[in-house]
Amino acid sequence: MHGPDPLTPFPFASTQEIVFLKAVVTRPTIEVGDYTYYHDPVEPERFEDTCVLYHFDFMGDRLVIGRFCAIASRVQFIMNGANHDMSRLSPYPFEIFGHGWSEGFDLADHAKGLRGDTTVGHDVWIGRDAMILPGVTIGHGAIIGARAVVGRDVPPYAIVAGNPGRVIRYRFPPKVRQRLLEIAWWDWPIGRITAAIPLLRGGDVEALARMADR
Prior knowledge:
Blueprint: E1 18-20, E2 30-32, E3 37-39, H1 47-50, E4 52-53, E5 63-65, E6 70-71, E7 76-78, H2 107-111, E8 118-120, E9 125-126, E10 131-132, E11 137-138, E12 143-144, E13 149-150, E14 158-161, E15 166-170, H3 174-183, H4 190-200, H5 205-211
Helix pairs in contact: 3-5, 4-5
């Protein structure tokens, strides 16, 4: 056996509080890798409606989440649609209400201030009630603490906490972090990952590296 089916919405027969997101996300502007899950005691299958906010198609920004990520309850991804143009004398969005207020508005001018796609790497753990702001990139293996507000990019294997979110430490020394990025176990065939699970539970990075050659 090579683990659960990543396209099964609810991987546990005993509860519907955990979903594999790849099986429930429908927006073409959201991409989620295999085995990434979201936990919420209330309708976790509504992740893209309750957790991905201000995500409007006309903005063109994407949310990309890698494989083997763990996302806790009520995490919020704030997308570019939340931004107001602060270069104007008033940031009030007159144009969205129409009735003559949209005349002369150019979306291209507004788009100049957008921050681009939001990207979460592989093997990332995001804690309860964390908030990820527009255009942030979270590196592979990072951990985002509960209620952290992340407004800037997070390096691989960093632990971020607080508001504003800051790196409080790294999970491993630099050489181990680099080795893990080189190994990139999340890209392996699922059979090899399954065989490597005892090593992934441990701390011997070189033993894991030897699995890469099999």
